[in-house]
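Protein modeling request. Please complete all fields; requests missing the sequence field cannot be processed.
Requester role: graduate student
Desired output: 3D structure, token encoding
Chains: 1
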Amino acid sequence: MAEQNPNNAHAPLDNFWMPFTANRQFKSTPRLLAKAEGMYYTDVDGNSVLDGTAGLWCCNAGHSRREISDAVSRQISELDYAPTFQMGHPLPYELAQRLAALSPGDLNRVFFTNSGSESGDTALKIALAYQRARGHANRTMFIGRELGYHGTGFGGISVGGMVNNRKAFSSQLLPGVAHLPHTLDIERNAFSRGLPEHGIEKADALEQLIALHGAENIAAVMVEPMSGSGGVVLPPVGYLKRLREITTKHDILLIFDEVITGFGRVGDAFAAQRWDVTPDIITTAKALTNGAIPMGAVLVSEQIYQACMQAPDDTIELFHGYTYSGHPVAAAAALATLDIYRDENLFARSRHMETEWESALHSLAGLDHVIDVRNTGLIGCVQFAPSAQGAGKRGYEVFTQCFQDGVLVRASGDIIALSPPLILESKHIDQIVTTLEKAIKSAS
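Delivered output (444 residues):
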């Protein structure tokens, strides 16, 4: 393996322009993973690295599951690709039925995509199509939220509230988008266990935006039940229900972006079920295939679907889609993944491990520079005060030290985010928290 070691040969790294990465910084001291199994990666030097992030919020059943790789191998040898434009093959129909059975309420229509970004933009298009189909073509405005992340398509970054994702493209963002305030309130909610108690009133900002812009002009409100990329920002108790009440009152669609929270991450199939709020549309991706093959799905209510079916039967109802929508190999991976979730009862396992996970994370609360610890399901984060060297420096230092010590965490500025696979055991919790404690103590 030595000849592949990037520490011995940097040139092979040059051509890949890495996403969301300081490329020059990374390539000067690269961190390359070579293998994965269960809860662990192995890097190119043969070192074991405990995965505290489920890859990138996606490998909920752990890594290199034979059930998934076997399903993919069988499918790619039998039917590698088939179009779904004016054609079909059996697997996406089977997968859509399985997803409809998992979904809350009447969200039983499924549009397949290839990523969370595509799911986000698809949901926005479906919302506009629905409003137009029912004679409300003036309803074109969207409301998102500060710190929200809905992918990197122009629709997603427009409705999203991640400043750095937006500012370089600000002149080309969608018009007619407003944003709710985020719900992060460290002053009142620091070190909450589970959902924070304070902040339901922040949902009332939606009433103010509706009064300003007019309900008759607003197509949909799009939020993550829990903001992941924005720093594990949890909804205050009652907040999501209040959003649902307001959108229902004003006949506005409510879209939940569950690309991160979907498929057991918060202790139910979807956060909508964990927190008992049924939106009109749910976007998914990531853990749908356990990260094995790119795929996303948009879950849509029966009401929206039927409204869009009012044209003549030989008319295309939605001029939208992707070459790989419902791809047979991706669908095979997703079906095998859903089987694992069911057979190993992983959604309930996430809820079962939540208390132990919570207690271990909050043991870090008294460390220097730690200003907040947040958790729900098998999600957690530790937030630091910025160092004198600048915002994000302390978080990056903790991240790199953890990796050197054999645990992968995720740094987002001065926030360390954690989302281990749902097959997590007590020994893994101990390793994650012990390693994180050591790294925090050694950080400047």
